[in-house]
Amino acid sequence: MARSQTTLMEAREAAHPEMTVSEIAQLTGSEAFQSLDALVGAIYDGALSTPPWKEAMGMVQERLSAEHVTLMLRPPSPESSGVMINTGETTQQATESYATRFSSIDPFVRLDEGQVVTAEEMVGKEWLNSTVYTEYLKPLGIRHLLGADLYTKDGVECRLRITRTEDDKVFTEEDKDFVRFLLPHLKRAIQLHTKLDLLETERQLFAGTINRMLLGIISYDEQGNIIETNEEARRILGEKDGIWLARDALRLDRVKEERELHRIIRRACSGEGQETSPAMVDAIAITRPSGRATLGVLVKTVPAGKYSEGKYRPAAVVYLRDPEANAAQPSHELVRRLFGLTRMEATLALLLTEGLTLDEAAEEMNVRRNTARTHLRSIFCKTGVTRQTMLVRLLLNSVIRLG
After folding, report:
1. CA nearest 122: which of 150, 146, 158, 140?
2. Would residue 205 count as lying in a domain?
3. Domain termination site, one of 199, 234, 254
4. Do 195 and 157 touch, CB atoms closer than 8 A?
5. Which strand ranges, in their side-by-side order, compose the sheet holding 295-301?
6. Each residue of 10-39: b (16+ CB within 10 Å) or e?
7. Residue 299 pairs with which residues in a beta bridge?
8. Helical segments of 101-172, H only
9. Sign of torsion over alpha carbons 369, 375, 379, 385
10. pLDDT tens digits, 374-385
11. What pLDDT, in 10s, does the model give residues 64-105?
């Protein structure tokens, strides 16, 4: 307790405008100040950690001599068990018990922004008679409970709960001051985490869509080093049919093609001319010794953002496309729902998009040619096209490949 109080007092003094440089240096070099600085740093680092804020909450637990510290990033609800970061000795059963039963009847919730209070201050004397205390906390040996809630403009609600046992001292005003000092930092870190989580969700969504479209991607930094390859790129390179990866560099069977590809990549990574002209785009076809169709390769500069920094951001990207790759068969149900087709009509339509003729599709479906032609006329009527090529183009340009 005394240690946290001293730290906060010193931190306040650090902001005093009349302090000399030597006095500030002496303060910042103190063990108490460095300890507090480490905790604040852990709070911001927690936005990038997995699980987030585990280390920071452990430091809070130690500083307050707490039994547990729990950060509810998403409080439990009837629709979800929530997301909770716990320190101290906890059991899965206790966590699930709170999420499934006691969270819905917990009166110690929805605290005012920035308010740091004990359960008894918030609820009153009836807290010790509440079901949450008598049936949940007391059997776990918990007597003292301190809490604070955070709310962001993005609709995030987080709860910070700190506990002590029957044998521990009650939470003091100094303890509350310590938590109040941390709350603004924790809120900013949570807002950063929310934005990063949104970006990561979008990245995974788009990456999955790109893989579904069978488009290989290799990203490079401005030094010409490969940063990342996606699933389809790894498949193509793994076949070693005309192009492969060796010692973190693309190698090609044909020397002339390899030299040209490397020249294009170097030019794209350098960002040559991008300040005065649109991003560089170039392409090359790669011959495959197996005799399969040539691989299409497109190289493009990735323009730097206005405030981009660092040498290891993506500076160029290489797209690979295998024209003979077999995409996953779209769901018949999606085709039926999108175009209002029957099961037989959906099967025929998908076979035609794979390049089969009407006769070949009829044989594959084990029906007569006239039956297949009848289905095709019905498909034309439902989709509004008049030719088989138009139907294939309609299906290939639709959303069914993303399903």
Report:
1. 146
2. no
3. 199
4. no
5. 226-229, 215-220, 316-321, 295-301, 281-286
6. ebeeeeeeeeeeeeeeebeeeebbeebeeb
7. 282, 318
8. 119-123, 131
9. positive
10. 999 999 999 999
11. 999 999 999 998 888 888 899 999 888 888 888 999 899 999
Residue ranges of E strands in 33-187: 68-74, 83-87, 117-118, 142-151, 157-165
Is there a contact between 43 and 182 (Cβ–Cβ < 8 Å)? yes
Sign of CA dihedral 340, 344, 346, 352: negative
pLDDT digits (tens, 9 = 90+) for 291-328: 999 999 999 999 887 777 767 789 999 999 998 887 66
Q: Which residue has the tokens 């909770």?
A: 84
Q: How many domains does the chain have?
A: 3
Q: Which pTM value belongs to this model? A: 0.75
Question: If DSSP codes are grouped into helix, strand and coil, which group holds residue 354?
Answer: coil
Residue 40 · residue 56 · CB < 8 Å: no
- Strand intervals (E) in 307-384: 316-321
Residue 144: inside a domain: yes
In a domain, 185, yes or no: yes
